[in-house]
């Protein structure tokens, strides 16, 4: 099936340079070889239709409003051997622990600033730093990060590196479950003799994490009432919200369903008002409460911040997390790990230059065609330049933007993102991939085994974001038995 | 259950029922048209169709005259008509999307599938065959959705809100169709032979011909038809059947207890029930019947409003 497949200069998840599959992909390779071309095409189409029919969509914004789209699904899974996964898991726990310390610290004593490790400037001028709103607040479990979606990539040597920490409203967890579900429906053969980590208990882990954040003033004689707060059906990640609320068995609410009275949050039900204890919000800080943030927000709930400060309601993820997952603060995460935990980072960062550093700025302007430039405040693949794939005109435009606002941009060397085979339009070809790992934290920390492998389906493209045409793959963590079989 | 969710379920259901009923009316009319002997009689009934399926005021704001092709387009896929089949189904899907977390997965899938295929319908040439296929698709989609609801939803509060929406929409539509038929009957009372045809059409619009004919072998007396469609307790589109079920549903939601906040609603439903019971259709002339039907349609609107108020579907809830 992969006869003309070339790994090239890239690290390939599945294939060796010799053209043979790697050990842990052997059985998958053999099985897929038994499918006829017709079977593969049929299965591929069935899988895509499955997503469409179920309306598992995300919304792409454009000038005429939003269009619903499904994320293309690719059936070649990313398989991760047990030992590799163990390391990722530990690395993620370490990183999230440090980031959580950091968030608690900068909204309290700011020890890390006092120690001269992170410039005060970088924090105080950060648009996502909500000192005025949440400084010195004691929150349940001292936990700011209930759910993180950390983006990992592998470089040309196959080493995992963290690309981004998403600590605000990471989306995509529903796709992990749906990918697995569709995969089992459409390719049952692949599951027949293999031992991979199941996702079955993960939703109850997630629910436990939510519930463990009961606020100080909740009625401890009753189970706390948790809700998921969504901006509504036009939000790009609405499906994610529906899925999580439904699976956890909590109410999916919009801002207009909630109201605050005497600093207590209620939801409006057909029988009147019902008290809410925990809000897993999927609305950005800015829009949460028109009294405390943007007064023009129609998505939020007036008075929510006051209720939060009084300990009458918990808000997950915490308010003000954005300061820690900013592309500039990212550079300091290894230092945070050293400072708070006195450990060396298990999973390294990608090398990153600040353009506010004038020496680096000159280097970047001279070598822009070799680098990736990112706006520190943007996400989703917007406002970025991939040097080697850019045109002269774009490079000039970015140079101009950088000189104008050097603080606004960072640069990274173009990483030779690892690749894996993807099957689209009747053939296999290599595509760049990354991996979003979900970390849940409550009384205990738990890493969802696997995560969302995203794939840049456009040949040669490095952008895996779904809004930019990326697709999804199932991610398999081999169990101990599975490791032996491989 | 959240008030907003209850409201969405109620309107999802009304929109689906509305689409099904309008699709059936249009489908029946398109077939009758084929049998009409001349163009005049073929065009004659469209005014009533417009009255049953939409608002003629709205239509004439957009168009100067009643053109058959324009009207068909207006009633099926026009984005300009809030009651067009396409719009009703879009609203139903949006309502379902906003309540996906509590609806059966299959319900969403059926609605979504319709939505995906609807895009293709809009691009097909506007032939009679395509229109009929589209109407058929709307009707079977509605029926499939009802099957999903009946076979997989627990008989809890969400289910009840769905059912109340459906029955109220249905009762109102039955009254509307009868009203239009009575009016036509009065207008053309001199031409005796057409009466059979009017009442037959009303029965077909309401999918009640087969059921009626079993009760009243091949006769088509206006009194029989009217009494069947208004008072027959066992026919699921009769006014009485629908209202009895609305009452029963509200009773179930309240666990049989009439609380202070639901008292007005119960009283109103009781009044309507008595009004239906006390109406002697055999004794009424067409004008009296029409005013009865008008009055009933007003009652439906009142019930809809009271129902919404009772469960905070429209009024914001104030903390006490």
TrEMBL record, chain A:
Residues 465-486 are annotated as: Disordered. Residues 77-456 form the Circularly permuted ATP-grasp type domain. Signal peptide: none annotated. PANTHER family: BLR5612 PROTEIN, SLL1039 PROTEIN. This is Circularly permuted ATP-grasp type 2 domain-containing protein. It comes from Halobacillus litoralis. The lineage of its organism: Bacteria, Bacillati, Bacillota, Bacilli, Bacillales.
From TrEMBL, chain B:
This is Alpha-E domain-containing protein. InterPro entries: ATP-dep_Glu-Cys_Ligase-2 (IPR051680), DUF403 (IPR007296). It comes from Halobacillus litoralis. Residues 1-311 form the DUF403 domain.
């Amino acid at each position: 099936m992969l006869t003309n497949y070339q790994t090239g200069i890239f690290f390939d998840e599945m294939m060796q340079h010799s053209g043979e599959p790697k050990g842990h992909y052997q059985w998958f390779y053999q099985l897929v070889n038994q499918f006829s071309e017709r079977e593969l095409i049929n299965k591929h189409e069935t899988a895509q239709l499955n997503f469409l029919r179920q309306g598992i969509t995300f919304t792409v914004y454009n000038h005429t409003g939003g269009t619903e789209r499904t994320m293309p699904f690719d059936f070649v899974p990313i398989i991760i051997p047990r030992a590799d996964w163990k390391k990722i898991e530990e690395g993620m726990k370490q990183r999230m622990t440090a980031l959580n310390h950091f968030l608690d610290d900068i909204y309290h004593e700011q020890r890390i600033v006092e120690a001269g490790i992170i410039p005060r400037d970088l924090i105080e001028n950060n648009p996502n730093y909500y000192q005025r709103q949440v400084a010195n607040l004691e929150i349940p479990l001292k936990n700011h990060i209930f759910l993180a979606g950390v983006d990992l990539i592998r470089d040309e040597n196959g080493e995992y590196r963290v690309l981004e920490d998403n600590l605000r409203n990471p989306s995509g967890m529903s796709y992990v479950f749906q990918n697995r579900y569709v995969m089992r429906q459409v390719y049952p053969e692949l599951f027949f003799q293999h031992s991979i980590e199941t996702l079955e208990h993960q939703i109850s882990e997630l629910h436990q994490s939510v519930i463990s954040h009961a606020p100080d003033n909740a009625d401890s004689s009753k189970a706390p009432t948790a809700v998921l707060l969504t901006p509504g059906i036009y939000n790009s990640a609405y499906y994610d919200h529906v899925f999580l609320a439904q699976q956890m068995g909590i109410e999916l609410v919009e801002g207009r369903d909630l109201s605050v009275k005497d600093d207590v949050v209620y939801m409006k039900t057909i029988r009147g008002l019902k008290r809410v204890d925990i809000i897993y919000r999927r609305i950005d800080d800015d829009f949460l409460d028109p009294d405390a943030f943007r007064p023009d927000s129609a998505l939020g709930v007036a008075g929510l911040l006051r209720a939060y400060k009084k300990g009458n309601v918990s808000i997950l993820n915490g308010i003000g997390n954005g300061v820690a997952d900013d592309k500039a603060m990212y550079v300091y995460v290894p230092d945070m790990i050293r400072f708070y935990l006195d450990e060396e980072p298990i999973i390294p960062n990608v090398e990153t230059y600040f353009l506010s550093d004038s020496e680096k700025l000159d280097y970047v302007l001279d070598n822009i065609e070799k680098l990736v430039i990112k706006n520190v405040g943007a996400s989703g693949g917007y406002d970025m330049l991939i040097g080697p794939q850019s045109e002269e005109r774009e490079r000039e435009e970015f140079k101009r933007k950088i000189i104008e606002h050097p603080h606004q941009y960072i640069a990274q060397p173009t990483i030779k993102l690892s690749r894996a085979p993807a099957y689209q339009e009747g053939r296999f070809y290599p595509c760049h991939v990354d991996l979003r790992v979900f970390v849940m934290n409550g009384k205990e920390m738990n890493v969802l085994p696997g995560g969302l492998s995203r794939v840049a389906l456009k040949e040669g493209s490095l952008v895996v974001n779904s809004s930019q045409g990326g697709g999804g793959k199932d991610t398999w963590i081999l169990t101990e038995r599975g490791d032996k079989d491989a | 259950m959240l008030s907003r969710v209850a409201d969405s379920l109620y309107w999802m259901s009304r929109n689906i029922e509305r689409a099904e009923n309008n699709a059936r009316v249009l489908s029946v009319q398109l077939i009758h048209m084929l049998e009409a002997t001349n163009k005049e009689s073929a065009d004659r009934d469209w005014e009533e169709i417009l009255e049953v399926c939409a608002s003629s005021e709205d239509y004439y704001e957009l168009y100067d005259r009643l053109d058959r092709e324009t009207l068909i387009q207006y009633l099926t896929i026009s984005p300009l008509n809030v009651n067009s089949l396409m719009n009703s189904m879009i609203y139903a899907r949006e309502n379902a999307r906003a309540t996906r977390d509590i609806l059966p997965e299959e319900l969403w899938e059926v609605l979504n599938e319709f939505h995906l295929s609807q895009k293709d319908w809009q691009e097909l040439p506007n032939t009679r065959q395509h229109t009929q296929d589209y109407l058929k698709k709307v009707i079977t989609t509605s029926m499939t959705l009802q099957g999903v609801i009946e076979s997989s939803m627990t008989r809890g509060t969400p289910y009840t809100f769905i059912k109340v929406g459906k029955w109220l929409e249905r009762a109102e539509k039955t009254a509307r169709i009868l009203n239009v038929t009575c009016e036509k009957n009065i207008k053309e009372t001199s031409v005796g032979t057409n009466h059979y045809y009017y009442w037959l059409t009303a029965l077909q619009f309401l999918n009640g011909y087969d059921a009626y004919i079993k009760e009243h072998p091949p006769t088509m007396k206006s009194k029989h038809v009217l009494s069947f469609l208004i008072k027959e307790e066992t026919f699921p589109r009769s006014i009485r059947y629908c209202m009895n079920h609305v009452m029963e549903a509200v009773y179930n939601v309240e666990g049989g207890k009439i609380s202070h906040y639901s008292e007005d609603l119960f009283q109103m439903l009781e009044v309507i029930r008595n009004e239906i019971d006390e109406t002697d259709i055999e004794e009424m002339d067409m004008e009296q019947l029409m005013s009865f039907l008008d009055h009933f349609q007003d009652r439906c609107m009142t019930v809809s409003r009271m129902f919404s108020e009772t469960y905070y579907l429209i009024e914001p809830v104030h903390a006490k």
